[in-house]
Design goal:
The protein has 349 residues and is of the alpha+beta class. The chain folds into two domains: 299 residues, no CATH class; 31 residues. It is 22% helix and 36% strand. The chain is built from six helices and 15 strands. It is flat, with a radius of gyration of 25 Å.
Length: 349
């Protein structure tokens, strides 16, 4: 039975028996005592992560959650459940920075693959700082406040889905303008193929977290799951069944399908889109993706900056300085007024 937390003996340095943690810089398990690095996986195994698994919604699935011997940590604020690998346990939730308490044994689904952390905590902190400094109309003290924030490394659960969609659609579009404006009906058929559609596998993976890593995902970067990659980080185990994952992400998929239909119609003013689809060839992966989350508080309001653990792409929440916004607004208004006066004077010449 797979466990998300590595057995402590497997994280001991074979050189000195010290504790090893995964290092994004060396891409290996680094001993915290003697400094010797040890590979997590034989490179020859890297291609093993490329495999996808078929899903037939009409057949009986053997996919079932497993009870691990490890105990989960439950956040008292947001309700998130994470497991910490290795002995350096945290008392804070990586999702919301709330206090966590030791809970019951965790029951979850087997992880298929992951992308190891490429960016370390120092890099994530510098990326967050650079992102804050680039924000227009930010309060003067924001950079100093963020510098004191805590970064937490988290492996967040995601799905990849493949499917072929045979679509029949109905829609309306408009032509002309004014008295010549007309609304017309249109219908058609099309085939859509989704390949490695990346979807969150947890309600705690917010749009901010998803957007912070979505554009960095490359399937060839996946590695076979091994607990050694998680040593020193928190992780949320997969708790959704395959059908639950498909259902939870149906809204996002509808948006993608509607956009494909608009492109297929290729006319302006397309609206009232309706469609029926028959999905087939569904394949999936349960994967973990790395993300750094920096938590800070501004005037009592908790906020976060999310840094992709793959290449450092950064998104975040930020406050505004009302004084700076007013000043920028005044400058813009003055510029527009001056332009108008110059244009008017030029036009009268």
């Amino acid at each position: 039975m797979e466990t998300l937390q590595a057995d402590q003996t497997s994280l001991q340095c074979p050189n000195c028996a010290g504790q090893c943690l995964f290092s994004p810089k060396s891409q290996a398990l680094d001993c915290q005592s003697c400094g010797v690095s040890h590979p997590v996986l034989d490179p020859a195994r890297h291609h093993d992560a490329s495999g996808e698994f078929p899903f037939d919604p009409d057949s009986v699935q053997s996919d079932a959650p497993q009870l691990t011997k490890e105990r989960a940590h439950q956040c008292q604020a947001c309700g998130g459940t994470v497991i910490f690998t290795a002995r350096n346990l945290s008392e804070r939730c990586p999702y919301c920075d709330g206090a966590v308490v030791l809970g019951k044994q965790d029951r979850g689904y087997r992880t298929k693959a992951l992308i190891p952390f490429q960016a370390d905590a120092d890099f994530a902190q510098s990326q967050a700082q650079a992102w804050v400094k680039a924000r227009i109309a930010a309060p003067n003290d924001l950079s100093a406040i963020v510098a004191k924030g805590r970064v937490a490394g988290l492996y967040a659960p995601f799905w990849t889905f493949d499917s072929s969609e045979a679509l029949e659609y109905w829609a309306m579009y408009t032509t002309g303008s004014g008295d010549n404006r007309r609304t017309k009906k249109i219908k058609g058929r099309m085939d859509i193929h989704f390949n490695d559609l990346l979807m969150p596998a947890s309600d705690h993976v917010t749009p901010l977290i998803r957007d912070g890593i979505l554009h960095d995902f490359t399937p060839s970067d996946l590695r076979p799951y091994d607990p050694g990659f998680l040593a020193g980080f928190a992780a949320e185990r997969h708790h959704q069944s395959i059908q639950e994952g498909l259902d939870a992400n149906e809204a996002d998929k509808r948006v993608l399908i509607r956009n494909r239909i608009k492109a297929h119609i290729n006319k302006s003013g397309v609206h009232n889109i309706n469609y029926q689809t028959d999905a087939s060839g569904i394949h999936y992966r349960r994967i973990l993706l790395p993300v750094w989350i920096l938590h800070y508080t501004f005037k009592g309001k908790p906020m976060k900056v999310v840094v992709s653990g793959i290449d450092g792409r950064t998104f975040g929440e930020r406050p505004f300085s009302m004084f700076k916004l007013a000043a920028y607004s005044a400058v813009i208004s003055a510029a527009v007024t001056a332009f108008g006066l110059v244009w008017g004077a030029t036009g009268m010449l």
